[in-house]
Amino acid sequence: MTLSPAEWEAIRLSLLIGLAAVAWILPPGIAVAWWLARYDFRGKALVDGLIHLPLVLPPVVVGYLLLVALGRQGVVGQWLYASLGVSLPFTWQGAAVASGVMAFPLLVRALRLSLEAVDPKLEAAAKTLGANRWRIFTTITLPLAVPGLLTGTVLAFARALSEFGATITFASNIPGETRTLPLALYTLIQSPGQEAAAARLCILAIIIALFSLVASEWLARRTKQRLQERDVY
Amino acid sequence: MSINPSSSTDISPLSLSIDQRLGSFHLQAELTLPGRGVTGIFGTSGSGKTSLLRLIAGLERPETGAIQLGDQVLLDTQRRICVPAHKRRIGVVFQEARLFPHYRVRGNLTYGMPTHAPDRFDEIVELLGIAPLLERMPGTLSGGEARRVAIGRALLSAPQLLLMDEPLTGLDGARKEELLRFIARLTKQVDIPVIYVSHDPEEISAIADHLVLMKSGNIVASAPLNHLLQRFDLTQELGGFDAASIIEGRVEQHDTRYHLTHLSLDERHRLVIPGTSAPIGSYLRIRILARDIALALTPPLATSYRNQLPATIEAMTTLPISPHSVELLLSVGANRLRARLTRKSSDEMALGVGKQVTALIRSVSVSHYS
Questions:
Q1: Higher-confidence residue: B322 or B77?
Q2: Which CATH architecture has domain B245-369?
Q3: What value does the mean pLDDT of chain B take?
Q4: Is it true that domain B14-232 has CATH number 3.40.50.300?
Q5: Which of A124, A129, A228 lies at the smallest CB-CB distance from B157?
Q6: Which of B251, B248, B247, B254 lies closest to B230, judged by CA?
């Protein structure tokens, strides 16, 4: 099966936007997950709810809110444009922001569970060995939470790949800029006589999703094995 | 580190004063501990000994209190000083080994090693006998092996004080004995003060020089172990410790024919104990149980007792917890021995303070090499 330039373009954009989305949400995602896993504070439930909002809100609402906030006339968008000359709507970067926001709760959820499972007693032991908070986090807490980090990252990546509603609302459906695989599929379905092309894209979407699932499963198993390595007696 | 002008070789002591409420539990402690040797902290579970340890390590913060190690203020709530745990240089060996499961044994050992410190890696690895384990993952170690690695890891972080919180919990008899011997030897070879928390009298009498007795959040007593074991008024609190005397003797000769070792306590007093492999001239710490001492008014001529020591009765009393017996404190040269007789025989022998007797010692157990 050979792919048409338009199909290649859609795949390339999907992967690019998916990776970019995961890349920008990883640092705040790790920080927030750690914060929620290790600290109790007033209003924790509220923060938790806000983070999970994209999971339960219609994606179009998220896209609309992003336009309100980051659009050229938006609260943050105005400032971004004026000071940095950055305009997010209708760009692939904007699509990455939209899909990142949608994927954020999935990353935080998986990572937080994994971080909560790390024994605080090990962190206390590291402390008595002279490690400061940053060293404890990077050498003990995070490495022990790697399975959750991997699961979260792959879930977030898959979510970002398949993101439709928020992306089309915030970044629109521009060929070669924001038309990812789902958007391309949607466009094909809208035009009569493109059923075969739509089916091809559909199969591609399934292949990419399956591949990332298998890859994550394999990675998770490998790290788990490394953690529980047993000598042969 | 010691800037103590009076004695540059002596490590300065640890002093603390702590007041902390946790729910209905109230920890109140005023303590000064020696700057060398092993201090045992003894008490039943819930007496506050682990809390005390966590406070010293900096893993917890009391409401009010002050902790000073040598000339270093680690905590002073009035002056709002609290050195964080990772800057205190206090090593901790926890009840569970707490090894990092994703590092090999080697990685665990080097985790806390300061970059600019004399490299003691090989020395400590050898001392603990863990060289064959270096490339293993912690999940593959036995309980005893893991404990040894944990001890090594704490020592390699170059601490100025080592805290051990029931490091033998959960080990079976033989492993326990083995590791206890390790720790005893270690505390002699590695010259840092050790605080050893335990609820097991046997462990404490095997390695501690100084004893702190805790009860429901309070310090009942703190003194050299020997002195506490000889105090009549603590007999009940120290019930688990068989009333005993711990004394040191110098190895004079080995009798290979009968497999015996001769010790001298001082110029005039000698003891014969079951044969050991301790080198001639070294010192052994031995333990004599109060109930293993019998008294005679005159040295018996024909007897199976090998050890007869001339002694003077220094003190005697009868405790309410055992009205049938008499507790005695004997002086043998510079040493003191604690003995226990039935009140009946004491009366029949007309024993009294100042009386000269002969102490007949039934058996002696070797505590450890010193």
A1: B77
A2: Beta Barrel (2.40)
A3: 86
A4: yes
A5: A129
A6: B247
